[in-house]
Amino acid sequence: MRAVIVSSQPLCRDALSAVARDDLAAEVVAVTDLAQVKRELEPDLLVLDLPAEADAGRWIARGAQIPAGCHVLVVPHRDLALARLAHAQGYKGLLPKSSERPLMAAALLLVLAGGEYFPCFEELVAGATPDLEPGSARLSNRQREVLAVMGQGLTNKEIAKQLGISIATVKLHVQAILAATGARNRTEAVSRLKQAD
Predict the structure, then answer these.
(1) What is the CATH number of domain 135-196?
(2) Which of 47, 166, 173, 189 could form a disulfide with 181 if both were Cys (CB 3.0 to 4.6 A apart)?
(3) What Rg do the C-alpha atoms of the chain give, in angstroms?
């Protein structure tokens, strides 16, 4: 598997390269600018770190034109507007730089497996209409299981052990639950869904 990392920030480029190389076992090509990506590479994964000074819409569109199995946008923090732009251009994920490394690796694996990872919105996920669906109807079966265990006040590590999944996967499910409920924290998510159901 080949991953191309595009970032003008050396620390970010090195960190993303390490995740792709060490956690995904990918052959990594790291460059500083979109213009340096050779079209003949056609990577399985193209990870693009949005430069602060870039016109986001144009830059995201330029990145989408580079042939790759899947495109992932890296941004400073969760941003619904950027997520919408990326999703509209065919990107499969949006990674906030504030994400912990295991979560980044799990999100990239999800994208490579054919899924999508947009932690800041649920309304663009195929068929989801959060305003019309009550409570936990928006959640997958596994997310409902995680939610039930969250209601017991367990930590991510304890949830992972009880459900037989990784801590990174638990974190992905917790983020999806928070996004689906619009909650700021776990307690609020449990409370909102109990009230809605």
Answers:
(1) 1.10.10.10
(2) 189
(3) 17
| pLDDT per residue as tens digits for the range 49-97 | 999 888 888 999 999 999 999 999 999 888 888 888 898 899 999 999 9
Long-range contacts of range 132-135, CB-CB < 8 Å, 24 or more positions apart?
134/196, 134/197, 135/192, 135/193, 135/195, 135/196, 135/197
The pTM assigned to this predicted structure is 0.63
Pick the CATH number of 2-112 from 3.30.1450.10, 3.40.50.300, 3.40.50.2300, 3.40.50.2020: 3.40.50.2300
Please tell me the predicted confidence (pLDDT) of residue 131.
41
Banded pLDDT at 123 (limits 50, 70, 90): very low
Q: Are 63 and 48 in contact (CB under 8 A)?
A: yes
